[in-house]
Every structure is written in C-alpha cells, then in structure tokens.
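Honest question from a wet-lab person: if I give you the sequences of every part of a complex, can you actually get the arrangement of the whole thing, not just the pieces? Trying it with mine:
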Amino acid sequence: MLLQAQVDRLDACENRKPLIRRDSNVPKFVVPNSASLRNARSFLAGCDPFADTERPAVLELHPKWIYMEPYALAMIAAWGGWCRRHDLPVTVENIGRHANYAARMRLFEHLDVDYDPGLREREETGRFLPITRVQKRSEIGSVIGDVSALLHLDDDPESLAAVQYCVSELLRNVLEHSGSPEGAFICAHRYTKRQPHRVTVAVADCGDGIAAHLGRAHAAALADDRAALGLAMRPGITGALPGMYGTPDNAGAGLFITRSMAKGTGGYFFLHSGKAAYRLRRTPSHDEQLLLFVDAYDEDRHDSWVFDHAWFGTVVSVEIRTEHIADYEGFFQWIFRQIPGRRVQERRIRFT
Amino acid sequence: MSEEIKLWPGANGFLEDKDLARSIRQEKILPALDRGESVVLDFAKVNYATQSFVHALIGEALHKHRDAALGLLEFKNCSPQLRSLVELVVDYSLGGFATEQAV
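Yes, you can. This is the full assembly:
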C-alpha cells in the first residue's frame, strides 16, 4: 500500500510531466496504460476527441496493458455517441485481451465496435455498474435500482445512499441542463480488493457544457471555462437566474453536495468541461476531510488545468471512500450542515 | 382542513424523483397553502432523500408564502437525515445561500 506521502509525490510528478500533444486532425482518444484519476491530466492532454468531423474517429489503446477508471470509460462512451451523431465510424486500435475489462464494462458496444473477448460473461454483481446510457428522467430510478443490486452495499446503507445520491444528482444535471442529444453515460466501480475501499461513479455527456449553460445567467462563465467550473461547484448557482435562490425546480446545490461527499470521505472529485478541468485529490486525514470550502479553488489539494482541446460537454467523477462514512455520526446530516445558509432567524419547523 | 401526503421512495428507501416532487407541489401543496389549509408530509417510508427532491417539493411554497408556509407545513416521521435536509431547504429558501466558507 502506498503511503500518503508517496501518493502526494506521484500526484506532484503528474502535474510536472510534459504533456503529450497530438497534432493530427483525426478525432482521437488515446488510452495509455493507465487512465486513472491520478493520471487524468496526461490522459486528457493526449486526446483530441472532437477534431475534424470529416475523418474517421480512432480509439487507440495501449498495445499491452490498460487500466481504465470510470471517468475515462464514461467519456469514451459519450464520445462514441457524439461520433454516431456525426456519422463517424470508430476504429479501435490494439484491441485484445488486455481490453477485456473495457469490454465487460460494455465500452465497445457503445462505440458500435464488435469485439468478442472470448470469455464467458462474468457476473457483474458486487463489482461494477457497466456503462449505461440514460436518456430520460424516468430511467434514473432503474439505474439507482441497478446500483443497489450490483454494487452489493446493502450492509452499508449510508454508503449506498451516498452513491445513489451522486447517481441521481449527476444524471439529473445532464438530463435537465446539458441539452445532450444522446443523454448521459454513467458507470461505476466498487473497489474492495485493495485500500482504499471505495466506489467511483462517473457521468459524461457531449452536450452544451457548463460555460454555455451557466452563461445564460452568469456572464463570467462564458468568458472563462475555469471560472465556469468554479461557479458550477458553488451552492446556489443555476443557469436560470443570476440570484442565489434557484428556481422552483433547482437550487443549484447538486455539484456542491457531491463534491462535499467526495471530500468528506477523503475521495477524488473531478469535473471537466470545455478546456478546463478541476480535480480535488484524496485527503489524507480526517481533520482535513472536515474542512470544506464554498469556493472549490480554495481547497489546498486541488488541481486546475486548462487544455488546448475542449471537451464538448461535461464529465464528473466522484469517489466515495466507503470506509470513512462510518467515521461520522450521521454522514448526511454532516453533509447538509456544510451548505452555508444565512440562518437569519429562528425557524419554527413543525416536525411530528 | 388539511391535506396529508404520504411519500413513497424507491430502492433502499431513497427518494429522488423530482418529477414526482413537482407534481405533488403543483397539484397538492401550493393549492392547499393558497387556500390557507395545512399540509402534512409523511416521510414514514423514506430513509434518505436528495436536496433536489425536497427543494422541488417545498422550495416554491416557502418562497411564495415565506414564514407563513412554516405554520401550515408539517413534516411527519422524518429520519434524522431528512430532518437536517428539511432544515437546510427551509433555511436557504427563506434566507438564501451565504457565500462564506462552509465550515
């Protein structure tokens, strides 16, 4: 197991690594040997998925070994939908047995690529939620039911509820705000073999993106993708109204709460839209987990990147470190207390 | 007169369907409050709910009727999680979000 100091050094190395830039005009995803959240910067910089729409699209896999986390899988599946929208067939290079995990996650089905891993289909239960496309709000309930059935968290209802919460909020964000013709692509994996025990959920779309959505009410979002991400992660910001009260249907607190769930358990939080990406790294101590900031850029352990190429849509990944939820006496009460209210007067709420 | 509304969750007692919340709000809660009648929201079957659900359920009523809505709304059988969630939504619906550091 890596010590936190080693992990910090690896994160720092990743931030210093020179970026691989691909200058061809082929719409392309390049999957290195590791497409993890830790390596997110180099993974994203090495891809140009929305280049020239006149040329066939390519998914280039590392020839020998690939490790993919849910955010990469969800992104590539969403991109497959974008390619289909533009009548671009996708070719996969270096496909083989080392891509069997991606096949089990149904990545190639979403790219319309035939690949038979030659293995008996294994039971999904207890490990992962394969990539699922969600186009209607009425489908969200069944995805939440699948999360309950597949991730086997029944003996840990607070963790299960935290995962369900993230699934609901992230899917609704896409279906209510993104304008994505293909809807949302979601997948999740429960990691239990090695520490830290965790569930990672990722949702990606190729819709309008955060800047375009928030820009309807907040001019600053249109001017700068990085600023747009910052606004999206604050509570009370919606694309409908410039004020801090939301609308009858939206308060604009979803991404703040999901970010709080990741931070509160010490897990990664990742948000990417347009040319900007934000990553909150894992938190090494319980005391630091308890320290949340309204402005995500005030977090000590964050990375903020601006790339040459934009992601046409939004990607969110939340890591819930399930082993830490029991540290709280009421995880959800703690989360809800983090949202800064004004508490200007005594409220007389009638609970019976 | 009072309107009693029982809320039914999905898997794991989890309630998140904002479309359901919207229809309850528009068809039952707002008309009852407009008539000056009380509304009882019964969460007996619910273990967890999203802030988005509770916002869609009561946020507009609080905006429209302000503190008077609190005199007419009753929250029945709330788990501790739900209780803190209702307190949160009431707080920001009547007072807005603050902008300082969260803790």
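Two things worth pointing out. The domain at 2-95 of chain B is CATH 3.30.750 (Transcription Regulator spoIIAA). Residues 24 and 73 of chain B are 14 Å apart (CA to CA).
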